Amino acid sequence: MAIKHWITGVALAAFAGIGAYVYLGAGQQAAPSSTFVLLDGSQQTTADLRGKVTLVNFWATSCTTCVAEMPDIVRTYDKYRAQGFETLAVAMSYDPPSYVVNFAESRKLPFKVAIDNTGAVARAWGDIKITPTTYIVNKRGEIVKSYVGAPDFAELHRLIEKLLAET
């Protein structure tokens, strides 16, 4: 009987420890050190994103889900940008730059758009092959959530609001 109580106690302690680890964010990893080349030729690094909650979206003009979710990404950016929210759309290396420029200009994307010509950025962020793949990075530069495919935007907005409220 004592062994049964001991095993139960150890199991409860383990679950509590795992819960605290997840809840407190101890499992979060730093966003990879990357340099993004923007459409205007300027560069932005992951270090430049510190202090802001950032959505990093890997996408392609040939990806129907990417094209379909882009208006929601624009609305999300417009809703939170005044509060310190940033969005960075990273076009995949196989996407022709002229298509990316045309897409960004014709849809008047209000956020930063980068072209990953060499694929180095996609490799650094987990060797991304599937688009869209989206990461949410907190103000400390840590990845707190990733989505493969279109996110649930209501859930995403709740997460952004929570992260923006953090100091």
UniProtKB/TrEMBL annotation:
The chain crosses the membrane at residues 6-24. Residues 25-165 form the Thioredoxin domain. The keyword Zinc does not apply. InterPro entries: Redoxin, Thioredoxin-like_sf, Thioredoxin_domain, Thioredoxin_ResA/DsbE_sf. GO terms for molecular function: oxidoreductase activity. It comes from the Bacteria. PROSITE patterns: THIOREDOXIN_2. SUPFAM superfamilies: Thioredoxin-like (SSF52833). Keywords: Membrane, Transmembrane, Transmembrane helix. Gene3D superfamilies: Glutaredoxin. The keyword Lipid metabolism does not apply. PANTHER family: CHROMOSOME UNDETERMINED SCAFFOLD_47, WHOLE GENOME SHOTGUN SEQUENCE, THIOL:DISULFIDE INTERCHANGE PROTEIN DSBE. This is Peroxiredoxin. It comes from Paenacidovorax caeni.
